[in-house]
Amino acid sequence: MSSFLRDLISPLSLAGLLTIVAVGLSLGVATQGEQTLRWAALGVFMVLFVIYDHLPVRSRWRLVSDVLLALTALALVWLEPRVGTLPVLLVVLIAHLAEHWPARTVLLSALAVNVCLYLALRTGGANHPFLVTTIYAGFQAFAALTAHYARSSELAREALARVNADLLATRALLADSARDAERLRLARELHDVAGHKLTAMRLNLRALASDATPATRERVQLVEQLSAELLGDIRQVVQSMRDERGLDLATALQALATPFPRPDLRVHIGEQVRIANPLVADAVLRLVQEALTNAARHGDADTVWLNIDNEEHCVRIDIRDDGQRAERIREGNGITGMRERLAAVHGQLELARTDSGGMHLTARLPA
Predict the structure, then answer these.
(1) Which of 310, 254, 253 minimizes the C-alpha distance to 287?
(2) How far is CA 311 from CA 276, 316, 340, in A?
(3) pLDDT, tens only, 22-54
(4) Which residues contact 95 (CB under 8 A, 6 or more apart)?
(5) Where in the numbering of this chain does the Histidine kinase/HSP90-like ATPase domain appear (predicted)?
(6) DSSP string for residues in 107-158
(7) Does residue 190 share a domain with residue 126?
């Protein structure tokens, strides 16, 4: 399902669209010039409402869209002050603002909109303009609180999913680290115990072979040869267990991204990449986690590409997304936290924008 359709059929958007359609039915059929103008204004309101979520986040286009929505709704009320359904558009507008803007902004906007509503009703000759404005202000407050709590619940659910993903990824990393520690312990045990005793047995067999009678010498030499081969096999096992395969980053990263419907994380890790230090692996995990959060919250991205590969004496991490951001990248607490976490393991971070307006993070960490 495309992001446009997904946003369109979300509960609040769908309720808003149905309300706008219902208001349109109260206008009647467009047979005259003025009536056509009213339908055109309502069409503009609906189009702005539908495309709003696909405008760049925190951009002037969203602010312009909100202003046009308010002006269009007030213009319709002014053109038809006696049609009691048209102020419902302002209820939709305030609920829409409460979903995207802070509470103080919504309150000030509601005050300004209701003052304009009162003036439009009064100049248009509507009966009891103050009473009508007060009633619709109550509807607006109810709709704004509903939208606000719905948004708060959504953010809380996202935060819970993020924490759960963090725990799953950390658990995967810790499990892999524990397996590596167990492998190293077993390698040491084999080397120190079995290897030592086999070496001692081989030396004793070699001494016995030199003193044995010709009849038993062949058998002693055969046992000595077998012990030598067994010692070589144990050394190979110990060496393979000591080989640095590195921590399983891919599993931890997928666990980090799985609970989120958006953005989609596409991971590529070079075959030669080895990260054995748990602190470095944890720094990579937190870097990707913050990049995913920024891509979803600030860039409205659908896809994040992660590439981890070796570069000279370090590991290079490239993270790109297809989001839309302002021309200037502002470093908030998230980016600052990235830099501090990387600095703790002697890493570096660079920021840039992609050609399409997304974020491009480049980090370098010691292998």
Answers:
(1) 253
(2) 16, 6, 22
(3) 888 777 655 555 667 888 888 888 888 888 877
(4) 12, 16, 140, 143, 144, 146, 147
(5) 282-366
(6) HHHHHHHHHHHHHHHHHTT-SSHHHHHHHHHHHHHHHHHHHHHHHHHHHHHH
(7) no
| Strand order, beta sheet including 314-321 | 264-269, 303-311, 314-321, 359-366, 348-353
Across residues 141-156, what is the average pLDDT? 86
Looking at 126, 157, 188, the residue that finishes a domain is 157
Counting every residue, how long is the chain?
A: 367
What is the pTM (predicted TM-score) of this model? 0.54
> Who wins on pLDDT, 112 or 80?
112
On whether both 153 and 52 belong to a single domain, the answer is yes
Task: List alpha helices for the chain, DSSP H.
Answer: 3-8, 11-25, 33-51, 60-79, 88-100, 103-123, 129-189, 195-211, 214-242, 249-257, 278-297, 333-344
Q: 28: Cβ–Cβ under 8 A, 6 or more apart, which residues?
A: 35
Number of domains in the chain: 3
R_g (Cα) of the chain, nearest Å = 34
pLDDT digits (tens, 9 = 90+) for 303-351: 888 898 888 778 888 998 887 765 566 677 778 888 888 888 888 888 8
251's tokens: 């599993």
